[in-house]
Specification:
SH3 type barrels, seven-stranded antiparallel sheet, Elongation Factor Tu (Ef-tu), domain 3, mainly beta, 8% helix, 2 domains, six-stranded mixed sheet, globular, 13 strands
Length: 177
């Protein structure tokens, strides 16, 4: 296996169908990443050593990415991957443009309101209807879905793993009351 740092690019959700296809939450900006990555690794759990895998096919279905690996041939094998992670070598990641932030860099970032109050941490980043959505888990364990529009995101501080947002009126009340 590669000794280069590995980056989580997706998390296995569940099997899809009978032929070994499974759905993932993708942490890359575009699913066509899976066409271009030189090496991909699969880690079943955090203690397991990642093993190299080859993507046979991928497609987008209901805002999720469905993947078939050459090494996974049936539903039972796909079921065993549930909760696993797909990883890529840092060297195989696309070149970052100036000012660009990878979605994966936002995972676990602290989310603050304009007042400085901690709302929670970003648990997932997804796309829905052309809009980036952040799933924020509050300190009380509640989920807030936040539309990450440039007018609502006041600051992203990667160095301190923090973001500052200004939610539209009524959004927090919708989730927290």
């Amino acid at each position: 296996m590669s000794r280069q740092p590995l980056i989580v690019v997706g998390k296995v959700i569940k099997p899809h169908g009978l032929a070994g296809e499974f759905s993932i939450v993708s942490y890359v900006d575009s699913p066509d990443f899976f066409d271009h990555v030189a090496r991909l690794y699969l880690r079943i759990n955090s203690q397991a050593r990642p093993r190299r895998v080859r993507v046979q096919s991928w497609r987008v279905h209901n805002s999720k990415v469905l993947i078939t690996l050459e090494q996974v041939t049936g539903r039972h094998e796909a079921e065993l991957l549930r909760g696993g992670e797909l990883l890529a070598r840092e060297a195989d990641m696309p070149t970052r443009q100036e000012g660009e932030i990878y979605q994966r860099e936002l995972i676990d970032a602290k989310v603050f309101l304009p007042s400085g109050v901690l709302l929670g941490r970003i648990q997932a980043v997804s796309e829905a209807g052309g809009q980036e959505l952040w799933s924020i888990q509050t300190e009380q364990g509640r989920e807030v879905l936040f539309p990450a529009h440039e007018r609502l995101v006041l600051e992203i501080d990667l160095e301190n793993n923090a973001v500052r947002i200004d939610p539209p009126p009524g959004l927090l009340e919708l989730y927290l009351t």
